[in-house]
Design goal:
By secondary structure, this protein is α/β, with parallel strands linked by helices. It has 2 domains: 1-37; 45-370, TIM Barrel. Helices cover 35% and strands 14% of the residues. It has 14 helices and 11 strands. It has helices at residues 2-23, 33-37, 82-91, 134-141, 145-148, 165-175, 207-218, 243-252, 274-284, 296-301, 309-317, 336-339, 342-347, 350-364; strands at residues 65-71, 94-100, 104-106, 126-128, 151-155, 181-188, 222-226, 257-261, 288-291, 322-323, 328-329. A 9-stranded parallel sheet has the order 10-9-8-7-6-5-2-1-11. α7 links the parallel β6 and β7 (222-226). The longest helix is centred in the N-terminal third of the chain and has 22 residues, at 2-23. The chain is globular, with a radius of gyration of 21 Å. 38% of the residues are buried. Residues 2-38 have low confidence and may be disordered.
């Protein structure tokens, strides 16, 4: 009888600990993938519905897109060829693609049969891959001129936490001065999971990165900084405790243009009145731009399928400060991350919609790809 009671307690404790682990987000098994994605609203839109079509009744593109956020390789350095990305994007109304590599390389100890490929996989750990740009840079050099015209780059393969990286960055820019490199990023700062998976972790607000931001400002380059506004939560809204880190950088480097991916939110990050927060940040910081990628649309802009009016008003108030990104890893797949923006674009006036889809990219990113290849150190 005593053994049975002990067994019951063990089972009860195991269940309790599993629930706690799940609430804390430490259990990333496939069975809980949807839960851990943390969509506040609808998990995914049905892009087969007529309202998500990229084409009008005559078969022409309703809008032309420039993708400000695409990773050519995933966390284990795999992805489609640039030639395939070129062909796929040409068929789906995407004119230009801003490529940025992922320096965090996922560690596989070999103790598990299945190789982890994404940061939500159980016990994933990462180390910094300082040559993450090189395979794509070299592949680009072998493309046809037509294919080359599709792609623009951010440089990201350097140790973001190391003061010595500035010299490596200068060397890379010199070696690849024939490439349209317009800035740096996506620089990871506060991340709801990866901050605890990287050793050492990188911070956007650091002396090491200040050197990069200063270099970017001198050369009219842009920087994409990934810094969540808050911690993730399963119990409602949380304060924007990491906003100050982002704004500290913005204030110290007024001559540098910065892009904040997916408006500083990710899975399970719940910000009360996010539009007011972003409006205040844009008002205070003229050098800040917002990339509407990842799950921002599902969680905040269209949580009930219809476009929320406050987001329409925010974009109309700052029509030159928002861009569309997909945040894809290595492949466009079914172009879900492009098609889902059609209802938002349709909700805007034509001028603002075209600025969001492509015009703001052309002004901020594409214009810089034609700068001289002589850098100011």
């Amino acid at each position: 009888m005593l053994k049975i009671d002990i067994l019951k307690k063990v089972i009860k404790t195991s269940v309790y600990l599993s629930v706690i682990a799940l609430m804390l987000g430490n259990n990333f098994s496939d069975a809980h993938e949807i839960y851990n994605h943390g969509y506040i609203g609808r998990p995914q839109f049905d892009i087969l519905e007529a309202g998500f079509s990229l084409f009008d009744s005559s078969g022409k593109c309703k809008y032309y897109f420039n993708d400000v956020h695409f990773h050519p390789k995933n966390f284990i350095m795999r992805g489609d060829s640039l030639s395939k990305i070129y062909v796929d994007s040409e068929k789906n109304c995407v004119k230009k693609v801003l490529l940025n590599s992922l320096p965090p390389l996922e560690h596989w100890e070999g103790t598990t049969q299945t190789r982890p490929t994404y940061y939500t996989h159980h016990k994933s750990k990462f180390y910094s891959n300082s040559v993450s740009d090189i395979p794509t840079f070299e592949e680009y050099r072998k493309l046809s001129n037509a294919e080359k015209s599709k792609f623009i780059f951010l440089l990201n393969g350097f140790l973001h936490f190391d003061m010595s990286s500035i010299d490596a960055v200068k060397s890379t820019l010199t070696i690849y001065k024939d490439l349209p490199i317009v800035g740096f990023g996506e620089i990871f700062g506060e991340h709801y999971i990866m901050s605890d998976q990287m050793n050492p972790p990188s911070k956007i607000d650091s002396r090491a990165m200040d050197q990069i931001y200063e270099l970017a400002g001198k050369n009219k380059m842009v920087v994409m900084i990934h810094n969540n506004l808050s911690n993730r939560s399963f119990k409602g809204a949380t304060p924007t405790i990491y906003r100050k880190d982002t704004e500290n950088v913005l204030k110290r480097h007024r001559n540098t243009k910065f892009i904040l991916p997916h408006a500083g939110v990710m899975r399970n990050i719940v910000i009360e009145d996010l539009t007011s927060v972003i409006a205040d940040m844009l008002n205070r910081n003229k050098n800040l731009y917002i990339d509407l990628s990842f799950i921002l649309l599902e969680n905040y802009i269209m949580p009930k399928v219809q476009v929320e009016s406050e987001w329409v008003e925010l974009i109309k108030k700052y029509p030159d400060r928002f861009m569309i990104g997909t945040d894809y890893l290595g492949s466009y797949g079914d172009f879900y991350e492009i098609k889902k923006f059609i209802p938002l674009l349709d909700a805007l006036d034509v001028v603002t919609a075209n600025k969001l889809a492509s015009g703001n990219f052309e002004a901020l990113i594409q214009a810089r790809s034609y700068l001289g290849k002589y850098y100011v150190w």
